[in-house]
């Protein structure tokens, strides 16, 4: 395909392919499809999307066709594969400059370059990383940002390769650029914090975007770039610096209100810092051991003490809880039953955890989980009023524990209760004892607290088997609560039904079932409880069949 004559016809076809008129759209798409295997077609596309004078939609489409072509024709063994000569020319053209003015197109070009890098870097494209690093150092703001954006996507793509040889290549890359990546992140972070103090919103947002991108690069390098990261002082230095930076960014959030243009990216950056810790913990649990104490102090401090008041937001709380949960239940941190068979790392981690989770600390965590995080919010109560079925589905949603506060809180409670039941059982039993008897329907705080405590007892049913005489509790307390008909008590009636459902397969005498069935039949008149009762009946049927 001759370049000069081809450019105009390809441009025309792309223009028609962006049309809303199907009479123009369909023939243009067919023509472009036929050209996909023609030599020179992708060189024409490169020239078109690099021409900033052309229509944005046309340039966008050119990038997409180029990106799809990489998937189909870039590999040497692919049918109608691109020639090595054209690929060499295309690689050079892709990194000639980083000055794309449109954000969406810039992102697509960065992804496109990363796709080529996955196949060709470093062997066929050794100049890619040096050119990116040089461009990132530049003074031009747009060029610096676009190069950093591309650097992130390339790093992310190379880090995702799983063959042993590819992993070694990425580790070589990481060791060569880690110092630069750390200094880049530190520089942009300092700039952002200084600009926030100076109330320079425009420059602060620009610096924050670069901080976020450089941190994304460091996350991939730190987690996937080192086989034994604990032996690298820079890696461990960066991870320790994460805690200080997190504190700075959380304090910074006091100054950056909801209306501030930096607010959304600031929260994203805070979450990204926690992801660095969580990813490193998951991939390198033994290397994480020196960070256990600091991680627990940080997470527990912000989530379970007044230190976090006015600073934390829901997603951050979820991340902190996930960090605590992952440390608590990590198998690498548990010694063997026969201590002599345990690895030294496991014993060290267990020692750190034991020293941290003292009786007062566990008591405070347990109480606050139930009395603060288990309480239904106004939004949840409103949702139940408006859509009981939707609320029931939301409350029992699959893998949402990783991302949503309520299920995450309940999973953390279960894991901590399971591992430290001797300490937490008396705490929970005391909370139950304090709520004996019917609650005052005029006291919504008391009703919400009872709902929360009953929720905890239901979740921990198997752990509490030897500590609660559920039959006696049902007769003396729960049965009476089911019979309170006041409309404000429906919250407790609903929770008691759920609670019995949790315990029925754990500890419930068969002689009491007729009485339970009679109460349930009476409650079927309550439209707010019908769905829950149906689920309860299904659970009962399943349990009886399995006996």
Automatic annotation (TrEMBL):
One of its GO terms (cellular component) is cytosol. This is Importin 11. GO terms for molecular function: small GTPase binding. Pfam families: IBN_N. Keywords: Nucleus, Transport. It comes from Salmo trutta (Brown trout). It is found in: Nucleus. Residues 28-100 form the Importin N-terminal domain. GO terms for biological process: protein import into nucleus. SMART domains: IBN_N. InterPro entries: ARM-like, ARM-type_fold, Importin-beta_N. Signal peptide: none annotated.
